[in-house]
């Protein structure tokens, strides 16, 4: 089916089955490769994007369910003040190790700070607990988010 999906502020044409996971549309049809495949079952958070500002797992979200919602991927995160600040601290604090999960971590972190600009350590851990990092960079992730928090 033909869809028009707004991604990172741009209207993109998609001709895909309605049940295609948004992740595959973003990566394979549109060519934005920052959003990663981890588990494909909504369990790891590597594929996190924003749909109307809310963190969602794109591996579990059918393209047909997006409608007129605004999708933001890691490639568009720097267009927001919170996203820019997080990316800068991520680099300054050397948060990443292998880096594979980090797009999802950043997307979830920015959604957290949008809904709660001043989370404490426990709230950060709770909000980020579904984003798995095989290199276990959790302490650096928490500290970086805390630096951007008000
Ligand atoms: Fe989507 Fe793991 S790839 S949650």
From TrEMBL:
Q: What domain of life does the native source organism fall in?
A: Bacteria
Which keywords fit this entry according to its UniProt record? 2Fe-2S, Iron, Iron-sulfur, Metal-binding, Oxidoreductase
Q: Give this protein's Gene Ontology molecular function annotations.
A: 2 iron, 2 sulfur cluster binding; metal ion binding; oxidoreductase activity
Give all residue intervals belonging to the 2Fe-2S ferredoxin-type domain.
1-77
- What InterPro entries does the record tag this protein with? 2Fe-2S-bd, 2Fe-2S-bd_dom_sf, 2Fe-2S_ferredoxin-like_sf, 2Fe-2S_ferredoxin-type, 2Fe2S_fd_BS, Beta-grasp_dom_sf, Diverse_Oxidoreductases
Spell out the protein name for this chain.
2Fe-2S iron-sulfur cluster binding domain-containing protein
| Source species taxonomy | Bacteria, Pseudomonadati, Pseudomonadota, Alphaproteobacteria, Sphingomonadales
């Amino acid at each position: 089916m033909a869809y028009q999906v707004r991604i990172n502020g741009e209207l993109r044409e998609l001709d895909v089955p309605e049940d295609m996971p948004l992740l595959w549309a973003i990566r394979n049809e549109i060519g934005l490769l920052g959003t990663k495949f981890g588990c494909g079952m909504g369990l790891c958070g590597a594929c996190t994007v924003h749909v109307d500002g809310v963190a969602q797992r794109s591996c579990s979200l059918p393209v047909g369910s997006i409608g007129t919602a605004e999708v933001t991927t890691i490639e568009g995160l720097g267009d927001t003040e919170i996203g820019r600040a997080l990316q800068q601290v991520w680099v300054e604090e050397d948060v990443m190790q292998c880096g594979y999960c980090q797009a999802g971590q950043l997307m979830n972190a920015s959604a957290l700070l949008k809904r709660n600009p001043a989370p404490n350590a426990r709230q950060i851990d709770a909000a980020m607990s579904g984003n798995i990092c095989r290199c276990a960079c959790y302490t650096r992730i928490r500290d970086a988010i805390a630096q951007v928090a008000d």
